[in-house]
Amino acid sequence: MTDEELKCRLSDFEDGWTERKENIKSTDDIRKTLVAFANSVPDGDEAVLFVGVADGGNIIGVDNPEKAQNSISKTASEWCYPPIKHTARVIGVNGKYIVAAIVQASHNKPHFAGPAFIRSGSQSKKASEEVFNQLIASRISKARPLLEAMRKGERVIISRCYCVTLVDCAIVECTEHYAVFQPLIGESIYGYYEQIRLKRNSATNQLQVDIDG
């Protein structure tokens, strides 16, 4: 993300992937936000924490931008577990300096700052047991696209080796070991990740799940 793109984000309303802090006095609050971003931001998106900016978007600036930048980096690397990969940059706006901490999607979640936090709208909230289990499952490479499709409400096509018919299903659960799919009619279909292959169906462009066994 370029400095110009960051400046454009400054004028946006605070949302799930943008948060503003006037200062860095509360490292607990900074840590909670970084953890919530890392646990929630989807692949391909970036979340930004601005320090030195009021909630309404007014630029306040930070007195020592290098110290603030180092403080954020230390918080992300030493006070979050696993450490959160990020980029902390100092940018100049209207003659003042602010710090932007950019957090990308993490494949090492869940991250912790005490409890596991996620983003809910413009707030950081403690993850429920169901969401916590999804965070654990997201470490599995085959689970990540299924979780993303489930988050978007997308249906998938199931193909099983003993059946020539493709079955249109909703994704109802992804654990760290298996996924569960529900067709419009009939019983749920279970697939362990070692049995699953994923691809895009050329006819419908839906995610296709081939289950062996």
Your description of this structure?
α2 (27-40) links the parallel β1 and β2. The protein is α+β, with helices and mostly antiparallel strands. The chain has helices at residues 3-10, 27-40, 65-78, 129-137, 143-152; strands at 18-21, 46-51, 86-93, 96-104, 117-120, 123-126, 156-160, 167-174, 178-183, 189-192, 196-200, 207-211. It has 2 domains: 3-137, 2-Layer Sandwich (Methyltransferase, Cobalt-precorrin-4 Transmethylase, Domain 2); 143-211. The protein has a 6-stranded mixed sheet. The protein has a 4-stranded mixed sheet with strand order 1-2-4-3, sandwiched between helices. It has a two-stranded antiparallel sheet with strand order 5-6. α2 (27-40) packs across α3 (65-78). The radius of gyration is 20 Å and the shape is elongated. Helix content is 26%, strand content 32%.
